[in-house]
Task: inverse folding
C-alpha cells in the first residue's frame, strides 16, 4: 500500500502562498499517486473558521475524489477560539470532514486497508483553552480506545496519526499527555505520523515505535521545492522516499 503524509497546510485565503502551494501538491499527487491513501495530520487551515475550510476544500476536494482515500485529523489551528466565554468551536472542521471524507464521526477513527491498520486521533480533544490547544491533550478515553485498536485484529502494519508532537520538549509544543501516548504506542505501532512544530524529521526505532515521521509544513518550500513523504508499506517492510516539486 502507498501512503502519503501531508500536514500543516495552513490555508487561509486564495491569495496566500499556502493556497497556491497546496494546489501544486495536490496536482502532483493526482498525477503520480492516485492509488495512495493520503493522511493529513492537522492544521489544514490557519484560524479554524468556516470560510477558511471552504477555501481549503476547493483544492482538497479533488484529492478526496481522485485518490484512493483521504483521511484527516484536526490540529490546534483547525479549532476556532471564540473568546473566554465562547470557548472552542470545532464545528467548521467537523463539517469539512463530513463533506470530504468517508469517515464516521469522532476519534479515534480506525480502518484497515490492504492489511494496514490506520488510526487517527484528535490531539485537541481535551483542550479547554488556548494554552491547552497549543500543546494538545489526547485524553484518557481516546488513549484507552487507541490501545484497544492496537490490540485488535491481525494487520501486518499499524499506523497511528495525530497532529501534536510526541517527542518535542520545547515549551508549548509537546503534547500534555505525551508520555502516556508513547506508552500506548510502544511495541504496538509501526509508523507514527505527526506535525505541529513545522520541523521536517524522520526517526527509526524510538521507544518501541518503528518509524516516526514529522511532516514539517507541507505548504512551505524547502530550498525552492515543496516536499512530502511517500511510504510504501508491504506485509514485511516499510520504505520511505521524499517526493519533491519545484516551486
Result:
Amino acid at each position: 500500500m502507498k501512503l502519503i503524509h501531508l500536514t500543516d497546510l495552513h490555508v487561509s485565503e486564495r491569495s496566500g502562498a499556502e493556497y497556491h502551494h497546496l494546489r501544486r501538491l495536490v496536482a502532483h499527487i493526482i498525477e503520480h499517486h492516485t492509488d495512495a491513501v493520503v493522511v493529513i495530520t492537522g492544521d489544514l487551515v490557519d484560524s479554524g473558521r468556516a470560510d477558511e475550510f471552504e477555501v481549503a476544500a476547493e483544492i482538497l476536494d479533488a484529492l478526496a475524489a481522485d485518490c484512493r482515500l483521504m483521511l484527516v485529523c484536526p490540529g490546534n489551528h483547525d479549532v476556532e477560539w471564540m473568546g473566554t466565554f465562547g470557548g472552542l468551536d470545532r464545528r467548521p472542521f467537523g463539517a469539512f470532514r463530513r463533506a470530504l471524507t468517508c469517515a464516521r464521526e469522532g476519534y479515534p477513527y480506525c480502518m484497515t486497508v490492504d492489511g494496514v491498520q490506520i488510526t487517527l486521533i484528535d490531539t485537541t480533544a481535551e483542550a479547554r483553552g488556548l494554552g491547552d490547544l497549543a500543546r494538545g491533550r489526547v485524553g484518557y478515553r481516546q488513549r484507552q480506545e487507541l490501545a484497544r485498536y492496537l490490540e485488535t485484529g491481525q494487520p501486518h502494519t499499524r499506523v497511528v496519526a495525530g497532529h501534536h508532537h510526541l517527542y518535542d520538549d520545547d515549551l508549548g509544543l509537546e503534547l500534555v499527555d505525551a508520555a502516556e501516548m508513547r506508552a500506548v504506542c510502544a511495541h504496538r505501532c509501526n509508523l507514527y505520523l505527526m506535525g505541529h512544530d513545522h520541523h521536517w524529521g524522520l526517526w527509526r526505532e524510538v521507544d518501541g515505535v518503528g518509524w516516526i515521521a514529522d511532516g514539517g509544513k507541507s505548504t512551505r518550500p524547502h530550498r525552492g521545492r515543496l516536499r512530502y513523504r511517500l511510504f510504501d508499506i508491504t506485509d514485511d517492510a516499510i520504505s520511505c522516499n521524499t517526493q519533491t516539486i519545484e516551486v
Summary: The radius of gyration is 17 Å.
